[in-house]
Design brief:
Layout lengths: L4 E4 L11 H13 L6 H5 L6 H10 L1 H11 L5 H18 L10 H10 L3 E4 L5 H13 L22 H10 L7 E5 L2 H10 L2 E5 L10 H6 L2 H18 L3 E3 L5 H12 L1
Parallel strand pairs: 1-2, 1-3, 3-4, 4-5
Helix pairs in contact: 1-5, 3-5
Length: 262
């Protein structure tokens, strides 16, 4: 009994250090609507299907109150759809820029494959968005064995477990305890827990950390450790079985998990 598959998230986990492609667009569409949101508010639902992300932001008490102040009424589903339409257009225009693999990802995937482990993936992006991401990521050397988007399972994205289940089925894994899910948001952790697989939060480059690579590297050792510990605590509070600072630690962690499965 050992780990047979690892399922990676995409933005903030495998590509797009800091998960900035969607965050910048969320900030823009709300600003264009006359309702300013904070970076923290834009990041909190990260990992969800993007229309669900917008709906969740609008349901936040402060954002909901601000929307009512600006428009004189509560938000409607029509508002959600209008914001999402703008989000989709703006994201598709910029998405290709945010497809660089995060450090250690390509080497780690190669190491896992050499150990006979299959590589799956889930995402909060739609199938159309992922056509852009997968094409450019593959050109840069990252291509998992399988991808499931919310589009493929009736738009029931995270925290529903169905994208993971579809990966398990396609990759031919015998038991959920033989699967590790690695992600960079609390939605990723919830998805993994709901699917009954090992939940691992990756810290450096994550949406939860919320820093560009340059910003992170510019911090002192003490400052880096502080943001690492803060992010680690968020994952642990959400229920992650383990956290890793970078992908470089994943193969050793899988050996640790394998020892527990014996």
């Amino acid at each position: 009994m050992k780990i047979e598959a690892v399922i990676f998230d995409w933005a903030g986990t495998a590509v797009d250090f800091g998960c900035f492609a969607p965050v910048n667009v969320f900030l823009t569409i709300f600003e264009d609507a006359g309702v300013a949101v904070t970076l923290e508010e834009a990041r909190k639902p990260m990992g969800m299907l993007k229309i669900d992300h917008i709906r969740t932001m609008l349901e936040m008490p402060r954002v909901s109150e601000e929307w009512a102040r600006v428009y004189g009424r509560s938000f409607t589903e029509q508002d959600v759809q209008a914001l999402y339409s703008q989000f989709e257009t703006k994201l598709m225009a910029s998405l290709a820029k945010y497809t660089d693999p995060i450090p250690h990802v390509k080497e780690t995937v190669q190491q896992l494959r050499q150990a006979g482990i299959r590589i799956g993936s889930t995402t909060g992006y739609t199938a159309a968005m992922m056509e852009v991401v997968t094409h450019h990521a593959a050109e840069k050397g990252y291509k998992p064995d399988f991808l499931v988007t919310p589009t493929d399972i009736g738009d029931k994205g995270r925290p529903y477990p169905y994208m993971i289940f579809r990966n398990i089925e396609e990759l031919g894994v015998k038991a959920t305890k033989q699967v590790v899910k690695v992600g960079d948001t609390t939605s990723d952790i919830q998805e993994a827990l709901n699917a009954g697989v090992w939940a691992v939060g990756v810290i450096v480059g994550s949406s939860e950390m919320g820093l560009t690579e340059q910003e992170f590297k510019s911090l002192s050792d003490e400052e880096q450790q502080a943001v690492i510990e803060k992010t680690k605590a968020i994952f642990e509070q959400t229920g992650a079985h383990y956290t890793i600072q970078t992908m470089r630690e994943l193969p050793a962690l899988i050996e640790t998990i394998n020892a527990r499965l014996v």
